[in-house]
Amino acid sequence: xxxxxxxxLLAAALACVLAVSCDTPTSGDGGGGEPDVVLDRAKFYAxxxxxxxxxxxxxxxxxxxxKCEVWIEQGAGITSADAKAIAAEYDNKIYGRxxxxxxTTVTLDDGTAMSLFDAADYLxxxxxxxxxxxxxxxxxxxxxxxxxxxxxxxxxKDLPIWTTLSLYSNKADMIYVDINPGKxxxxxxYATIAHELQHLLHLTADVVWRTQSKVVTEQDVWINxxxxxxxxxxxxxDHAVTGRIDQFNEQxxxxxxxxxxxxxxxxxxYATGYLFFQWLRIQSGSADIYRDILxxxxxxxxxxTEEAAKIDASYSGWETLLRSWFAAxxxxxxxxxxxxxxxxxxxxxxxxxxxxxxxxRPGEGVYSDLKTVQAASGNIRYxxxxxxxxxxxxxxxxxxxILTYNVSTTKGKNPDGTDTGTSETGTIAxxxxxxxxxxxxxxxxxxxxxxxxxxxxxxxxxPGALPDGxxxxxxxxxxxxxxx
Length: 484
Hints:
The protein is an alpha+beta fold. It has 2 domains: 2-218 and 454-479, no CATH class; 237-443, no CATH class. The chain is built from 12 helices and 22 strands. It has helices at residues 80-102, 116-123, 187-209, 221-236, 239-242, 244-250, 267-284, 288-294, 302-308, 318-330, 455-458, 470-479, and strands spanning 2-4, 26-29, 35-38, 40-48, 53-64, 68-73, 105-107, 113-115, 130-135, 148-153, 174-178, 211-212, 215-216, 356-360, 365-368, 380-385, 391-392, 401-406, 412-413, 419-420, 424-428, 450-453. A 7-stranded mixed sheet has the order 4-5-6-9-11-10-22. It has a 4-stranded antiparallel sheet with strand order 15-18-16-17, covered by helices on one side. Helix 4 (221-236) crosses helix 7 (267-284) and helix 6 packs across helix 7 (267-284). The longest helix is centred in the first third of the chain and has 23 residues, at 80-102. Residues 1-24 and 431-447 have low confidence and may be disordered.
């Protein structure tokens, strides 16, 4: 795919993050007989999610790879040998897998071609490397009462491209990665880097491809987060290690209807979003669908339906696409299913409890033992599902379970950045059917920490307008403050 953006090419220039010192590299005992080398020191801004305020920390640059730099919060106890291993994992695996899936070519108005990855660097500090800052993110993790922690973060304010530049911008394309309770060099640690890298690429696509009259239009958060959950899989290539399917099987609000479409920032959103974007990939036969959605000119659900229509023309309608995914979860081996990659032994569909009415927001759906398909009412639809994978939508037809779902696509935004959606009432009946039996759980068990994305804590801190002089003007001034 080749896209054209109206941006003049800048010569690559370096920008310092805050006050980078020019100290002579120092070394100490790095363990295992290898010296612990500090290449540089600098101060960075970081967010304290307990208080909502920014603070400064000192970090040490301990490794420089081909495509990344690894900075460690001072006193964290991570050696330069560890940092080199992290840089190597990024260079040799994360970068390549992400580039294969998401990269495309954008052409500048002077005819110069640039990859999406290079464009992300262009919007940052232009040094050709992603800055990885490893730190103990100050979140609300406080076991045993609060077991969630911020695993990582890409913060848009760090890109020096906005009309009003944040006082706390580090002026770099960078990712923050937690090391307490996050475990450096663990599969989840590296998956977090891939997850947050997609957010950086996504904002780059928003800026260069979905900007009108200097106002950046972000794609819906569920699309952005769904692609970041896909990035976790692209790195790990293992559903069990991601833990998302186990979360789908265990989260108690999923049988009540909660899905990704109205994004609340809870584990049910991540779990259902993960499955939906895995299903899109499996149905399409290629991870290329992720790139196509990322680079769509659309910012809402139509970015997904337009690409899904290439799989099946009927998927151009959100109602059919949503219903087919619900059917796939009930009958993973059916014609709408996961084609053997995810089976009925992996995924557990649980029915809604109780009988009578249930409120469902846009995109939500529940399974119950209604016996027959009911008449549509407002945006509420019904479908009869069979274990063989058949889907019946005609009123009065039967199914092993009846799906009740809301096909509305109308949403709003809360001040904290989460979605709002009007609930509509559907009918359910108590069911004794519970499809599938999950394998032994590999997700975070009760009492174990689990990762969340700091986007859900940043709330309304979203991109604003681009400067009147254009990106080139603001970047030039920031990189060359003396006007040369």
